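Posting this for the archive.
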Amino acid sequence: MPGEPSIPSLPSPRAPRPSGPCVLLKHGEIFLKGRNRQSFTERLHDNLRRALRGVGGSTWIKSGQNVTVLGGEVALEVLVERARRVIGFNSVEPALRVPSTVTDITEAAVDAVAGARAERPGISFAVRVKRRDKGFEMTSSQFKRFLGARVREALGPLPVNLSSPDVRVSVEIDRTESYVSWTRHPGPGGLPVGSSGRALVLLSGGYDSPVAAYRAMRRGLHCDFVHFTGAPYTDAASAYKAYALARELNRYQPGGRLHVIALGHAQKQLAIAGAGRLQVVAQRRLMVRAASALAGRTRAEALVTGDSLGQVASQTLANMAAVDEAATLPVLRPLVGWEKQEIIDEARSIGTAEISVLPDEDCCKLLAPPRVSLRAGLTGLRSVEKRLDLDDVVDGLLRDVQIMYPGETGGEGEADADGPDSPDGPDSGPAPGRPSPAVCATGSSGAVSSRGASSGVVSS
């Protein structure tokens, strides 16, 4: 990832032996699970296998106690990059796999510190040992001191810093093989995607909703997405952004589908019905009604929004309550207590910020009044809604919904094939830097459309 330290080259074995580079993946909070831990681990490994699709070579996965070992005939940098996006791992550590003998482990530890010192003279070091095989000839403390002494003996009086060393050599000892690592990358942590069920994210083009989706994924929710456009009164720019955002988010989960709904005519109906200062809240109520109905098709058990309490007029406590009243599913707001800068910082770290700043025509600004009611009352909202046949409006919105599959063929963005709307196979997403929702299916007939970026993708 940008700004991350480069992965140091791994030392070569001094003589032929059963060893080689690998990646240690430390489990997140699933280690707290009791009898269900195995099912969480299986889900985590399934997600890892999906992330490794199209990696360009054979790979293998080995399960240990609260750790997964990953290796294969693939560049270590590629394995690390893919693994760092799999939610459920707390850390990703390039390592060397060696036989569980004092000699082999010591050689690997000395080589690791020597390689680091060659790049950065004058470094300090420390050694950490975890002995999973209690039959090993030394205890963890004894072997830690032994390794430290051997490193200084081989390389000279290097400074030891136990609290914040420049290089921390970590040794994990199993019965037949051990792992020596000296670089640690943070992982996403959280619960494996899919272990908590499915959710439908109301995805706009801003910073907030993509971050909310990512946070929902970290709590184990497999997310599909729904994006509302102002078509036919706005152009397709917001749909392009939503596609690009969903594609980026799908790098953290098995591919979620994007549903695009043209809301413009319904927004105009609300305005004609006299919504006035209630227009924005009435629109959001209509969105959650449509999303609740759509959730039945995607098997979602909750809706997710990017609302942050008090951030804008429509996100006051009273207005949030008014929106919730129109939903038939729980509405989850992972960012409800976040400040805007916190959200922007998270967007940058997960890769959605550069997409969110692109210009588009936000449907929420269409027909918005100069002033929005801070306390939209249910009585007034229901009065406006009675002037419309809401069931018919929602049916019309879903009848023309377009379903897209943001992802990359053979990569970590492939479409998940276990849902009712899944295609026969994954579709290619647009080239990086040029999002184009070119693969879609209409909700009414299921016919596949392959219109280009210049066409009105939100019209059926």
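Residues 279-298 form the longest helix (20 residues). DSSP finds 13 helices and 16 strands in the chain.
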